[in-house]
Write a structure and sequence with these properties.
Length: about 260
Amino acid sequence: MSDAVIDKRQVAASFSRAAGTYDQVAELQRNVGNNLLARLPHAACARQLADIGCGTGYFTRALAERFGQPVLGLDISEGMLRYAREHSPDSLGWATADAESLPLRSASQDLLFSSLALQWCPQLPLALAEAFRVLRPGGCMAFNTLVEGTLAELRDAWLAVDGFVHVNRFMPLAQLQQVLAQSGFARWHCEVERHVLHYGQLSELTHELKALGAHNLNAGRPSGLTGRARLRALTAAYEAQRQAAGLPATYQVAQILLFKGLDQV
């Protein structure tokens, strides 16, 4: 992704607006985050750890419970941080932060965790370089991210209507693997999960994306309201993909572990 594709100021504003509704519709987000938690090394002993893109603090609290240590929640969205602070124990810390410029000392963290946040980074290699910098030798970075193929049904339906960008773009898996291979970590592991959700009506999906703060944030999206004729055309195109369980919405989630070598500084 490039800066022309994602404007982080708009990302921060969108998620701030969604802070009060996010947890109500975030079942998929909790599932894939729990799957990432389950992938953490069982022998991991983390004394200093941070949750990057912590959102409402759901996994910040889960990490604190698992490791019995205070956790620092970092997010670019001040609205999300306010919500997280109000709904979490006082033992947890919170700070406004950009994953591409972490406000952490070099070699200060044992574990970095990030669930469905780094896809909003225009420069993923920079975010991984920052993670490498702040990890201690032997530390681990665990993150998941959406890859190409996510919301493919919605993208295809819009392509039948017009040529505008209506669905967020996500990195192809091959490109992500190349970024991981060039990140400088001693070793890494990447596994892709495919999740297919089903909805009774298209409006259920679009309302959910808005409540999550994850609606279209790409350059090239149309301005103004969507006309009724285009919405009817979109609905018809999506209905052509209906399955017995309902209208499908696919999420391709890459679950990733990165390990800094004991001899890496």
